[in-house]
Amino acid sequence: MAVTVSIPTILRTHTGGEKSVQAAGSTVLEVIEDLEAKHGGLKERLVKDEKLHRFVNVYVNDEDVRFAGGLEASVADGDNLTILPAVAGGMR
Amino acid sequence: MLQIRRDLVDAIWAHARRDHPDEACGVVAGPEPAGPPERHIPMDNAERSPTFYRFDSMEQLKVWREMDANDEVPAVIYHSHTATEAYPSRTDVSFASEPDAHYVLVSTRVPENTEFRSFRIVDGEITEEPVEIVESYMFTHTGADDVPDRAAERD
Ligand SMILES: [Zn+2]
């Protein structure tokens, strides 16, 4: 199950500057575990308390996984997984 | 320093005033690697809230792909505060993840307010920077001196 993962600028320090890397897995979490094995340090930027970290958005193809099963969302061979920093803030 | 065209500043103010009392947010894209800001993209505040903002995730995906295809970066990421001053909050800082972006804040707390402020937010640290509003970038120096050393150490 090979997927192409787009890495945002802020996380490229973990991928040696690469914008896009290959990973394997049949769920978002498995892909993240595989990324962690190849590019240590990525997982803690993406996962907190066994959930997707609120600082990031993860998409499988054109779908925001927050609305599609979160870390358990399924991923198929040839899919694109896109990671973007969430752009947000609050008054306090 | 942030150098930005007056029409872009006006567009950001118009967006902030239109959405008041909710926070307004958006980006101004510019050519990579570091601007100048050229293309104003008002974003939906998915929270529709006077105290919180979040880019709509689907709109963000579309806009980020467009920027990628155009070799653009989010030169400016802006939002409004509608009840407090134009200064990044703790939450704003915790989410700030573009070390190369100018984080612009405006405040619509007082209608006659014209405070338009810009910050760099890197590793949780806020640095305010001066803002120069210009009519056009044509005759101004846009920071060619800021290009980082290119692998001077390499053979
Ligand atoms: Zn804020």
TrEMBL record, chain A:
Signal peptide: none annotated. Transmembrane segments: none annotated. CDD domains: Ubl_CysO_like. This is Molybdopterin synthase subunit MoaD. It comes from Tamaricihabitans halophyticus.
Automatic annotation (TrEMBL), chain B:
Pfam families: Prok-JAB. Keywords: Hydrolase, Metal-binding, Metalloprotease, Protease, Proteasome, Zinc. Residues 2-125 form the MPN domain. Transmembrane segments: none annotated. Gene3D superfamilies: Cytidine Deaminase, domain 2 (3.40.140.10). InterPro entries: JAB_dom_prok (IPR028090), JAMM/MPN+_dom (IPR000555), MPN (IPR037518), VirAsm_ModProt (IPR051929). GO terms for cellular component: proteasome complex. GO terms for biological process: proteolysis. The keyword Transferase does not apply. SMART domains: JAB_MPN. GO terms for molecular function: metalloexopeptidase activity; zinc ion binding. It comes from the Bacteria. CDD domains: MPN_like (cd08070). This is Proteasome lid subunit RPN8/RPN11.
